[in-house]
Amino acid sequence: MSIVIVGGNECMVRRYIDLCRDYNCRAKVFCKMRDGLKNGIGSPDLMVLFTSTMSHKMIKFALGEVKGTSTMIERSHSASLCALREILDRTAVRV
Asked: How many whole angstroms from its chain centre is CA 91?
């Protein structure tokens, strides 16, 4: 399963990727708009939006990139590891 995480804290990128690896998922993390977001989203199975740490422009862009695809979108106001773990627990059943 491929996951794209948009938003979050820069210091947590490695932990986000490691947690996704524990769930046998490949993850890409984009904390800021300039980190290659325009070219790197692709067509993931799941997109996680940490809305508290991202701009409205970034949210609109990320949602526009996956519009019309079968990508699941999960939003969380918290950018914590526990919030990501809960999302992965919920979506693992659906995938």
From this structure: 12
CA distances from 57 to 2, 21, 40, 82, 85 (A): 23, 29, 17, 26, 26
Predicted TM-score of the model (pTM):
0.89
Cβ 7 vs Cβ 60: under 8 Å = no
Give residue 36's domain range: 2-94
In the chain, the number of structural domains is: 1
Which CATH number do you get for residue 37? 3.40.50
pLDDT in tens, 28-72: 999 888 766 777 888 899 999 999 988 898 889 888 888 888 889
